[in-house]
DNA sequence: GCTGCCGGGCC
DNA sequence: GGCCCGGCAGC
């Protein structure tokens, strides 16, 4: 019995659901916000991937790379979406990664172990984002 | 309440 | 330039 998994590709999320509507609801509620007037038609669809999952293991077919993936993940499509309409990633819609930075790793009581930027309350340079 | 960090201050 | 903090957004 194979099923389909919808995985959220928002930074540091990775939430999985089993239906298309549920992942879109997750993305809209958790990441994108309530809703916007005149927003891109289906903006949610850019933030998740749909993949089929086999029960035991993936088949050993090495003939083809995965062809026919959804229209997402196309560089042109992405540039078009980001360029014409500064959707997220503009000052105002800032995501938040869940990986720890110097402050949380070492704690306030060991500030001398933080990287310089963290000491100055700037963007961390030791742990990527 | 805490974390990450932009903006802005002081030297 | 180095150094620090207010204040805010995102949890
Ligand atoms: Zn750091």
From TrEMBL:
Main subcellular location of this protein, as a coarse class: nucleus
Biased composition (Low complexity): 83-92
PROSITE patterns listed in its UniProt record: ZINC_FINGER_C2H2_2
Compartments, as annotated in UniProt: Nucleus
InterPro entries: CR1/CR2-DNA-binding_regulator, Znf_C2H2_type
Coiled coil: none
Keyword field contains Transferase: no
Keywords assigned by UniProt, alphabetized: DNA-binding, Metal-binding, Nucleus, Transcription, Transcription regulation, Zinc, Zinc-finger
GO annotation, cellular component aspect: nucleus
Residue ranges of the region described as Disordered: 30-102
Top-level taxon: Eukaryota
GO molecular function: DNA-binding transcription factor activity; RNA polymerase II cis-regulatory region sequence-specific DNA binding; zinc ion binding
Cross-referenced SMART domains: c-clamp
Biased composition (Basic and acidic residues): 63-77
Occurrences of domain C2H2-type (ranges): 6-36
GO BP term, example: regulation of transcription by RNA polymerase II
PANTHER family: GLUCOSE TRANSPORTER 4 ENHANCER FACTOR, ISOFORM G, PAPILLOMAVIRUS REGULATORY FACTOR PRF-1
UniProt name for this protein: Putative zinc finger protein
Lineage of the organism: Eukaryota, Metazoa, Ecdysozoa, Arthropoda, Hexapoda
């Amino acid at each position: 019995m194979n099923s389909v998994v919808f995985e959220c590709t928002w930074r540091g999320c990775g939430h999985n659901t089993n239906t298309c509507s549920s992942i879109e609801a997750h993305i809209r509620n958790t990441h994108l916000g309530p809703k916007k007037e005149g927003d891109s038609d289906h903006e949610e669809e850019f933030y998740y991937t749909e993949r089929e999952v086999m029960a035991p293991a993936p088949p050993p077919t090495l003939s083809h790379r995965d062809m026919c993936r959804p229209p997402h993940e196309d560089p042109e499509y992405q540039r078009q979406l980001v360029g014409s309409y500064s959707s997220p990633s503009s000052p105002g819609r800032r995501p938040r990664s869940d990986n720890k930075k110097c402050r949380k790793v070492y704690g306030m009581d060991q500030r001398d172990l933080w990287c310089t930027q963290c000491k100055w309350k700037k963007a961390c340079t030791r742990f990527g984002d």
